[in-house]
Amino acid sequence: MNVAVEAENISKSLGTNLIINKLSFSIPEHSITLIKGKNGVGKSLTLKMIANLMAPNNGKISVYHSLSYAPDMFPQNIKLTVQAFLSYMNKLNANNHNNIDKMSFYLDLLNLAHFQNKPLHQLSKGSLQKVNIIQCLLTDAKIIILDEPFSGLDYDSEKRLIDHLKVLSKTKTIILTAHDHNIENSTVTHTLNLDDHSFNRITTTEALKLITIPNHKSLHPDIQNLIQSVNSDENNRLMIKVYQSQSNAVIQKLINDNFDIIEVKDI
């Protein structure tokens, strides 16, 4: 497996306080890595060093792809509207000029479309966090760094974001911190524990279902965000693999989009 980010014996001090001491890890491509540990152990600091916003005092960090970063604190005094700010950030991405469809997709995904004409400085903490996440995801970067992305999000938006990160991890590398470690069992593929410098692969035990439908039109993005994979069989039918916990939602969306459900089975 190819490596996206690699750290070799990095150490970092703030003033005279040694926060991180001789930390090494290798984060594989196409993974979701949760950086966890006690308060003050250096989780955000590690993300900032990966993002090259801070340099380690000793050791070396190698980042092998382009990256995008969403900090845990987003400026609250920006006078631009949500749409104007995101349009500006979108244009900064050389490969993504004027991609209005992508911006609209993320506004809808995080239930923010009705706020797009509102100035950022008038938004709540949760809505401002959504803008923070969107400006990060709009880029074409191969590595996405999210510092406490779920802080302040409503349940529905958090669930939508988690499902979308799973989809993104098929082509991108996601590195994040989160106080809610419940995502560890349902979302992340690896954990970096700064308490003991351990790096572990997480194996999900959640059951999967296979949903078979006719292959006569494209799947809506809302469905694509919930599925793990989709393939065609020898009869040119679509075989959709989905976690059992998501299967009812996927089936309902397929029915709403006028798909016939040929078969649903456990795998």
Automatic annotation (TrEMBL):
<keyword id="KW-0813">Transport</keyword>
<feature type="domain" description="ABC transporter">
    <location>
        <begin position="5"/>
        <end position="221"/>
    </location>
</feature>
<keyword id="KW-0547">Nucleotide-binding</keyword>
<dbReference type="Pfam" id="PF00005">
    <property type="entry name" value="ABC_tran"/>
</dbReference>
<comment type="similarity">
    <text>Belongs to the ABC transporter superfamily.</text>
</comment>
<dbReference type="InterPro" id="IPR003593">
    <property type="entry name" value="AAA+_ATPase"/>
</dbReference>
<dbReference type="GO" id="GO:0005524">
    <property type="term" value="F:ATP binding"/>
</dbReference>
<protein>
    <submittedName>
        <fullName>ABC transporter ATP-binding protein</fullName>
    </submittedName>
</protein>
<dbReference type="InterPro" id="IPR050153">
    <property type="entry name" value="Metal_Ion_Import_ABC"/>
</dbReference>
<dbReference type="InterPro" id="IPR003439">
    <property type="entry name" value="ABC_transporter-like_ATP-bd"/>
</dbReference>
<keyword id="KW-0067">ATP-binding</keyword>
<dbReference type="InterPro" id="IPR027417">
    <property type="entry name" value="P-loop_NTPase"/>
</dbReference>
